[in-house]
Amino acid sequence: MTTPNSLNGKFIVLDGPDGCGKSTQAHLLAEWIRAQGLDAVGFRDPGDTAVGEKIRDILLDPEHIALGPRAELLLYMAARAQLWEEKIAPALASGACVVMDRWVSSTCAYQGCAGGLGIQTVLRIAADSLERTWPDLTIVLDVDEAAAAARMNRQLDRMEQKGRQYHQKVRQGYLELARNYDAVVHLDATVSIEALHDQVIAAVRSRFAADKS
Question: Above 70 in pLDDT, residue 34?
Answer without folding.
Answer: yes
